[in-house]
Write a structure and sequence with these properties.
heterodimer, A: alpha+beta, Gyrase A, domain 2, 3 domains, 55% helix, B: alpha+beta, Multidrug efflux transporter AcrB transmembrane fold, Alpha-Beta Plaits
Chain lengths: 566, 297
Amino acid sequence: MKTRWKLVVIAAVLGYCIWALLPSMRYYSMSEDARAKLTNEQRTKYIESAIKLGLDLQGGAHLVMEIDDSNLDENNKKDAVDRVIKILRNRIDQFGVAEPVIQKQGQKRIIIELPGLSDLERAEKLIGQTAKLEFRLVRQEDEVGRALTMLDRTLKGVTVHGTQVDSTSAAGADKAPSQEIDTKVADNSKANVDSLLPTLSTDQAKEETDVPLPGASPDKPFTSYLVSVVEGGVVVDERQVSTVKALLATPQAQRAIPSNSEFLWQDRAMAMDNTQGRVLYLCEKTATLDGAALVNAQTRNDPDDPSRLNVGFTLNRQGAIKFGRFTGENIGRRIAIVLDNQVRSAPAVQSKIPNGEGRITGMKNDEEANDLAIVLRAGALPAKVTMVELRSIGPTLGRDSIDAGKRATMVGFILVVAFMIFYYHLSGVLASLALVFNMIIILAVMSTLRATLTMPGIAGLVLTIGMSVDANVLIFERIREELGKGKTVRAAIQAGFDKAFATILDSHVTTLITAFVLWQFGTGPIKGFATTLSVGLIANMFTALTCTRVVYDIVTSRRHVERLSI
Amino acid sequence: MLVSAIIIVAGAVSILLHKGLKESIDFSGGALVEIALEKPVPVQDVRSIVEHAGFGGAEITRFGQESSYLIKVKEIEATGANAAAPVDSNVTPERAIAKQIESALSAGIQGQKVEVRRVETVGPKVGGELRKAAFLAVIYSLLGILIYISWRFQFRFAVAAIIATAHDALVMLAFFSFAGLEMSVSGIAAILTVVGYSLADTVVVFDRIRENLGLRRREDMATLINTSINETLSRTIITSGTVMLTLIALLVFGGAVIREFALAMIVGTIAGTYSSIFIAAPILLEWQMWHPNKPKK
């Protein structure tokens, strides 16, 4: 009777396992073509019910982002992470990654998993971008000229090595000239930007194949770095952007820049003769309008060059009114479209724009335009995010890992089965069957729990093969021992199982404790290892104590067994 | 026991000499790039490209297949000079390094296309936290086991088991140091797995001792422990054998990512089997000698 109930339980477990594994078997035995033919609905169904492969097996990226909420007030700090997650989810969904995982970790971190990601750099940009859009008035030429003159004056004696500012020599030097600054400003109010530029002209540069870098000259410590002037701004050689940046960050420079203005860089370098340059704009410090007023952003064909895309945006009603007034008041002047403190473009206002529509140009390619539209639609992040951890695995490495995992599992399995049968004969066959059943249970439970199979997870599976025979070994050894004492086969089996039970329980629980700790501690792949190990241990107790036992009971109850093949 | 002492002391000396264990970028923070070529080239060729990109401190090794190479940069302070693209302000220095290496290599090596198989970057803060978490994980698992064994057996059994297990962990650490392997997250996983396995081993022996304590009260402790060990010896050897078989399968066929893990586990399994017999049981015996105790029923 008892045996019958056990058989029912075993049959139920086996039935369930097969049912749970069916989608996985179908899905993973499909060819690439067959998979491609599936409708989206079918595919989601399969992906939801089949065993999930970890990023290390199918390829993809695991990112940990940390938000910097130091600029937020208490009120905004509380839900900053949640708001960031919402916006990021929005962006990633529109980006089109199947089955992304976006999770909060602790107070300030967000884990993002993007399976099967092919273009890492693009995804990084899409996720990491704050996407703060602003419209700022560009300062006029005379104001720029004045600021540059002041910079030359206050930066006297300040030298820069790479990005390191050597301000020790500047300490004394910067006091004396600062006295005369105020008096001289008036004289320079009409200063022309061109006149400040060093004599190194573009003509001269053309003649030389190796373009010389303009260096700091003692009397023009700042403007000597400028290579040319464009409408609305000045140009710095790309190779010296970091140097000029360091100069601008010095307290001396900060004093020279008018408090209502700010220098902003162009977001990309432009090709110049033989070299690359980046425009530096002097803009109003406060934005007239920002991206909060934006209701939509779409890519559209560039009217000037239909083969390229740019991003058109629409402002809400209030924004449109404000934008209309702003453009109306500043006809002829330039407005910088600033994204994340970098100037995308600074077009001159031709006429009043009443409908609240505008466009952003200058995208490298269609993908960039697409992504910009996505981030603008999804909105700006309330706080800056930085990627503190990245693990990205290419698809070929994943495939190699799967192959290696399969091979190791097969070899491990065959070795163990061969040994068990050699050593325990028919009982070894029984243990091997229990082992197969064990592995079926592990995979079925994993697919039910929607747990992820990772490379270390496969290692856990292989290890489980070795460890799971332990329960059977304990029982078999015990039975042999009892037989040696002269007990009958039935009594020996009975005693063997009874006595081995406590040992199996204790040894499995101790291993489970460490597997549990491992699961708590680990992320991604290691968690996968801990999961397979834990499930394997529990499945093992079931197969060894119930399944093997039932077979023995059936065999010994039907007829009198004289000798046990063990 | 002497052998263990020698291994552990030598391991400790080796760790001290190398100023601590070598840490992987999981803990130290840094950047890792794995590339694959169609045909193998001398490591020196890869190195010269990486060095040219400004990373002289990079560690470059062949990895797994003949034509795969692993490039690791841990010295992040070198970034001052080769700061990343000046404007990408939210790119971390580690990521910037990985990007620079990728782009330096993307030009190709000896006309071969370079495939980037894996990129990992870990910030130093995350690494530090992970190190702490790993340490705590080992401590918590030992604590959990101490409580469980104290409950199922006796406190003295628990202490003996923990010492035997700590021995295994120390032997593994010594092995990491000798072999010049890096301590990574999967290294910690290997140690914790061995901790679990070795404990199971010890528990099996203890279980027999507990059983025999109830059956043969008149025997003296030394004989009793000896008998128990002998009775479980065949099981101990068979199980370690099957585990070893699967570990060898992993080592040989499991691929490069798993190789170090399997190697560490093999060492740990040997130590674990040995420690259950030659460390846990003797400690129990010594304790009994000094503080005789009537076993509870």
